[in-house]
Write a structure and sequence with these properties.
It holds the Pfam family DUF3243. By secondary structure, this protein is an all-alpha fold. Helices cover 79% and strands 0% of the residues.
């Protein structure tokens, strides 16, 4: 399955989700756990729609568990930063 969306729209949607999670009181640790689970879900179930998503999928597939957790955390931070600016 492929998700049709631009890179910027994807980051905006993810950033809004992170902001909402923080607003309702979720800790950074909980947000990072959810980001990791979503990373696994997307990597296993969706074809990347653009080159940026393709790169993320390849990095995810190449990484070990700790690297995947770090990547998920960085993606959440990137998306959140873009929404705040």
């Amino acid at each position: 399955m492929e998700i049709e969306t631009s890179w910027h729209d994807w980051k905006k949607t993810l950033g809004q989700a992170v902001n909402t999670a923080e607003f309702v009181g979720m800790s950074d640790q909980t947000i990072n756990k959810i980001a990791y689970r979503l990373g696994n879900f997307f990597a296993n179930n969706f074809d990347p729609a653009n080159r940026e998503q393709r790169l993320l999928k390849e990095l995810w597939e190449a990484g070990g568990e700790d690297e995947k957790r770090s990547l998920a955390k960085m993606i959440a931070k990137l998306a959140e930063r873009d929404v705040k600016h």
